[in-house]
Structure formats: structure tokens, C-alpha cells
From TrEMBL:
<feature type="domain" description="Isochorismatase-like">
    <location>
        <begin position="9"/>
        <end position="154"/>
    </location>
</feature>
<dbReference type="InterPro" id="IPR000868">
    <property type="entry name" value="Isochorismatase-like_dom"/>
</dbReference>
<protein>
    <submittedName>
        <fullName>Isochorismatase</fullName>
    </submittedName>
</protein>
<dbReference type="Pfam" id="PF00857">
    <property type="entry name" value="Isochorismatase"/>
</dbReference>
<dbReference type="InterPro" id="IPR036380">
    <property type="entry name" value="Isochorismatase-like_sf"/>
</dbReference>
<dbReference type="InterPro" id="IPR050993">
    <property type="entry name" value="Isochorismatase_domain"/>
</dbReference>
Length: 177
């Protein structure tokens, strides 16, 4: 299947942390789109995993992104796939939709780790952040070159819906307007 299958999807939110976000170029837009993905995943029953990199130093996940309904994994490795329990939470058959910061560090290394572990990965480019645009764009190209699908938040929403007859269609459309 070439589209994102909502029946086997998982949303991964990487390191949107309070002390990091003020330095992120267009960080508010990345947070807004990550929130849309979280709300959509909640709407259609897709599990969400958050990671926090060195939370003592970088703070907790920003308040705009609720972690209360999700699994939260603390890590010190940039690549979450190297964190002890991480890959156990991402079954091999899952379509993993990824959003996060920084695109060229933790997001990229985690995506490459997931690809190396034979997971299917979709990177939501409009829900990524880096301090510099050049770093973000270079990371996107590298992740794509290694097999990640590059998508947008709206693409994910419509692929998770699959049809205009979905019972949550109107609620989902309200998320992207």
C-alpha cells in the first residue's frame, strides 16, 4: 500500500521541548501542525508516542502538545531507536508518521534508525523544526533519499480518513481549516 494505512499507523512526536522551541525557525507553525496530527490521531484512534531528549536540560514537551493520552519515552540518545524500550513500542508492521525537532538531529537520526529497523516512515515536513532552514531542508532530503516518505499534515489527515464518508470527516476537516 502506498498510502498511510490508518489501521496500522502510529504517530511519533519527537522532542518538541520547552527550552528548545524558542530557538526553532517557524517553531509555532511546526507546533500547530504537530497538534493537528495529535488531534487527528486521537479522533481516529491512532496511538501516539512522544519522546523527550534530555528533559532535565531541554525541559518537558511544550504545553500546546498534550502528552496525557500518549506514551512518553525519555531518552539521551539522539536516535530514539537506540533508547532501550523504544523499538518495542513500534511494531514492525506500523506506518510511523513522524513530526518533531530538530529535523537534522533527533528527528533525522530517529527516522534513519526506524528505517534501519525496517519500519515504514512518513515524515510530516510541515510539522518539523530546526533552528536553521538549511538544516531542516537538508535533513528532509537525506531522510527521503534513505526511504522515508515526505508528506504534509493535510496529506496525513486525508489518508487517515480514506473517504469523505468517514464518520469523523467533518471533525477532521475542522482540524485543518
Amino acid at each position: 500500500m502506498l498510502t498511510i494505512d490508518p489501521l496500522i499507523s502510529l504517530l511519533l512526536i519527537v522532542d518538541f521541548q520547552s527550552r528548545l522551541m524558542p530557538a526553532i525557525d517557524q517553531g509555532a507553525a511546526a507546533v500547530k501542525n504537530a497538534r493537528r496530527l495529535i488531534d487527528m490521531a486521537d479522533l481516529v484512534g491512532i496511538p501516539t508516542i512522544f519522546t523527550e531528549q534530555n528533559a532535565k536540560g531541554l525541559g518537558a514537551t511544550v504545553a500546546e502538545l498534550p502528552t496525557d493520552k500518549a506514551r512518553l519515552i525519555h531518552k539521551m540518545t539522539f536516535d530514539a531507536a537506540r533508547a532501550p524500550e523504544f523499538l518495542e513500542t513500534v511494531p514492525a508492521d506500523r506506518h510511523v508518521v513522524v513530526a518533531g525537532c530538530e529535523a537534522h538531529v533527533c528527528v533525522q537520526q530517529t527516522v534513519l534508525g526506524l528505517l534501519n529497523a525496517r519500519r515504514k516512515v512518513y515524515v510530516a515536513r510541515d510539522a518539523l523544526g530546526s533552528r536553521r532552514t538549511e538544516d531542516k531542508e537538508t535533513a528532509i532530503r537525506r531522510m527521503e533519499r534513505h526511504g522515508a516518505e515526505i508528506v504534509t499534515t493535510e496529506m496525513v489527515v486525508f489518508e487517515w480518513l480514506e473517504t469523505a464518508e468517514h464518520p469523523r470527516f467533518r471533525e477532521a476537516i475542522a482540524l485543518i481549516k
